[in-house]
Amino acid sequence: DTGVSQDPRHKITKRGQNVTFRCDPISEHNRLYWYRQTLGQGPEFLTYFQNEAQLEKSRLLSDRFSAERPKGSFSTLEIQRTEQGDSAMYLCASSLGTRYNEQFFGPGTRLTVL
Amino acid sequence: DAKTTQPNSMESNEEEPVHLPCNHSTISGTDYIHWYRQLPSQGPEYVIHGLTSNVNNRMASLAIAEDRKSSTLILHRATLRDAAVYYCILNGNEKLTFGTGTRLTIIP
To answer: How confident is the model at residue A1 (pLDDT cuts 50, 70, 90)?
Structure first.
C-alpha cells in the first residue's frame, strides 16, 4: 500500500500529557498537510509543509502545537500539555505540489484526552 | 476563502443517479471547484475538480453553471458504497476549507 499512513491510529491520554503523531506521505509528494476534525464537522486546516519548510499555520494551532517535517519526508505533530478540547481526529494529507492537485488523506489518528 | 452552501443531507435509491448541489455565489475567477467525500471512519477522498467546463472521471461528473456560482456533483448510478459525506470546496490557495458537507444516504 503506497498511500498516506498515520501512526498511531488511536491515542488515549490524560490531560496535561504530551502526545506525538506521525504521518508518512506518499513518497513523491512534496506537500504535506495537517487537519483536525471534530465530531459532526468537516476537517479544519492546521498547517502545511512544502518539503521541509512550514509555509502556513492556522490560528487554530496554538503554542502547544508544533509540527515538523525533517528532511521533507515524514512529519510529526506534537501537542504539549493536552486539554480535553484537543480530543479530535487528526488527519494528514499529501499532494504533488499545486493547489490544483488532489490531496490524498491518511486514515487519521483519533485522540481522546481524559 | 469563498464560502460554499450545501444541503445538510440527501437520500437516494440504490442504482439511481444522484445530483448533489453546491452554491458558491462569491467564487473568484481563479477558484477551482473541488469535491471530496468522506466515508465512515475514513479520511476524506478526492472525487473530482473543475474550473469552468464540465468534467467527467471514473467516479463522477461535475456540472458547473455558466456563471460558476453553482455546481452539481453527479453520481451516475449510486451504490451502497457511495454513502458518505460529500464536501464541495473552493480551492483558492493551498489549504482545503471544508464546510459541513452533504450526508448522502443510499436506500437499498
So the answer is: low
| Chain A residues with a Cβ under 8 Å from any Cβ in chain B | 4, 31, 33, 35, 40-45, 48, 55-56, 58, 91, 93, 99-100, 102-108
Is residue B101 classed as helix, strand or coil in its secondary structure? coil
Mean per-residue pLDDT of chain A: 93
- What confidence tens digit (pLDDT) does each residue in B37-94 have? 999 889 999 999 999 999 999 999 999 999 999 999 999 999 999 999 999 999 766 7
Query: What is the rounded end-to-end Cα distance, in angstroms, of chain A?
Result: 33
Phi, psi of A84 (to 5 degrees): -60, -30
Contact pairs from chain A to chain B, CB under 8 Å: 56
- Is A53 a residue whose pLDDT tops 90? yes
Q: Distance, in angstroms, between A18 CA and closest chain B CA?
A: 24
What pLDDT does residue A114 have? 96
- Report the 10 Å Cβ neighbour count for B18: 21
Please give the grid coordinates belonging to residue B23: 452554491
Alpha carbon distances (Å) from A15 to A40, A71, A85, B43, B61:
23, 31, 10, 26, 46
Cα gap B35→B47, rounded to integer Å:
5
Give the pairing of strands A109-113 and A10-13: parallel
Residue B2 has pLDDT above 70, yes or no: no
Chain B closest CA to A109's CA: distance in Å? 10
